[in-house]
Request: fold
Amino acid sequence: MNKLLFRTRIKFCGFTRAGDVRLASELGVDAVGFIFSPDSPRRVHPTEARAMRNAMAPLVDAVALFRNNGVEEVRDVVKQVRPTLLQFHGDEDDAFCRGFGVPYMKAIPMRADADPLDARALQTRYPGASAFLFDSYGPTGGGTGRTFDWSRIPAGLNKPIVVAGGLNPDNAFDAVLATLPWGVDAASGIESEPGIKDGDKMRRFVLEVRRADCHES
Reply:
């Protein structure tokens, strides 16, 4: 896709404080993510996420992230938080992911020792996915703080791709130019500690993505 035809969407994930959500919204991010994965240090309760959602500016999407959560847990989050997108990082199949009446994005862990991914097989496995998020492989899903080999993202996908995994203000520019993604997703790279966002890092990250969008190769 010609990079000149669109701007890169930005999602910041793993919020635990309303003030950080408000600042991210003011900086112009497209989406903020709340994590409900049971083994994440950034996990929040649905009532906490609902309160933080009230700090979001108009036209900013709320994303709910799960990793092998139960059906009732996901339903409770959907009811209380009213996310506009669900993000699944576990072993969930397509039927499970699309069973909540909310569009979903499937995260694909990029293991260094795995065989190359096939775009057709991926889309056949998750036909209901609105997008695919490619993330570094970690025992607890995202938030590893490590990048992966961006050249391993499969070509030929007919759905938007989002790149995650170790993105920060220092490599966001290169990541956008290397992958030409629909969006980028950052968590640990914009923090001072897990769940605590750094305002300067968030600001710099947004500026670097926009710089890449305006770059003429």
